[in-house]
Amino acid sequence: MASATTISSSEPTKVHTSNISSIKAFAESNGTSLIPSNYHSLTEHGDIIDVADEIAASIPIIDFSLLTSDDPQIHTKAVHELAKACSEWGFFMLTNHGIPESLMEELMKKSLEFHDLPVEEKKEFGDNGEPFSPIRHGTSFHLPAESVHFWRDYLKVLTSPQFNFPHKPPGYREVAFEYSQKITWVARKLIQGISESLGLESNSIIESSGFDSGQQIMAVNLYPPCPQPYLALGLPAHSDVGFLTFLIENGIGGLQVKHEDKWINVNPIPNCLVVNIGDQLEAVSNGRYESVLHRAILNNKDTRISLVVVNGPAEDRDIGPAPELLLKEKPLFKSIKYRDYFLLQQKSRLSDERALDKIRYSAQQ
């Protein structure tokens, strides 16, 4: 885990970072040498890691089997607990979700195999800068447009409404498809519970957003050991597009969530899904459930892999506060097509602005 103390660095390694197409390959060739200065994201932004481990013990845990219970009393209580987690934290750990542990382990194994492929073999999946490309493999966030880079390689795949996935390593596509289908089912049930918690009909958000033909993105992030983890980040503070994000990892910590102005280390319990609220759910709930800021920190010993699935609306749907909520309150957000918001968010990630703030009504309106 990264230190809470800022440490001054020596003269950084002189490297042409525009030539780095894989931070994994660079880290392996660079060994224990100092990292390039334009990976100093913590120093550049004056960011000291403020870790509150004592608060981490109270991270909400939601039992999915209770939420999906046929017993009305059990279900109602679970909906209440879900509402509390969403309103107070914006994320939670989901247990008893029904996705086999063996499937999750196989998916993580294949994900490592993909990142272990030679650079030449992954070139066909190279990121062309188009956010809606079916398959994108690259490094950092958007290397050509960045002044500061991030210690991460990624594979991003659009897995719904049309399923795409790399054809290698063997078996990866099949395992990813099964996981994608199961996550979609879990997401659907959670959104139904969230709808109920807002006082809406169970299928209100599902139907109004076109969820059943909605966009799903699977991102496989690899964070190699970093010689100076107190200077760099795997990913900077950001919120996610969509309704819900689901994360699993390979047992190496690195996820931090912003809670009450402190960064909290998230150490998932075994076989759980870490779930966070996305921007579109904050908009639909008219601000009741906030899209949580989170980031990826680094270590100097172990490679971390995280696999993230983002479930959102259909690209052509206008998404804004649920009309039923506006009968008694003013809208906090403007409605916007999900596709347009997605593009807005991608640009905002490069300028340290939140896309939600761009569609938020001013206090004077």
From TrEMBL:
This is Flavonol synthase/flavanone 3-hydroxylase. It comes from Medicago truncatula (Barrel medic). Residues 210-313 form the Fe2OG dioxygenase domain. InterPro entries: DIOX_N, IPNS-like_FE2OG_OXY, IPNS-like_sf, Oxoglu/Fe-dep_dioxygenase_dom, Plant_2OG-oxidoreductases. Its EC number is 1.14.11.9. The keyword Metal-binding applies. The gene is 11420454. It comes from the Eukaryota. Keywords: Dioxygenase, Iron, Metal-binding, Oxidoreductase, Vitamin C. It is an enzyme of class 1 (oxidoreductase). SUPFAM superfamilies: Clavaminate synthase-like. Belongs to the iron/ascorbate-dependent oxidoreductase family. The keyword NADP does not apply. Gene3D superfamilies: B-lactam Antibiotic, Isopenicillin N Synthase, Chain. Pfam families: 2OG-FeII_Oxy, DIOX_N. PANTHER family: OXOGLUTARATE/IRON-DEPENDENT DIOXYGENASE (PTHR47991). One of its GO terms (molecular function) is L-ascorbic acid binding.
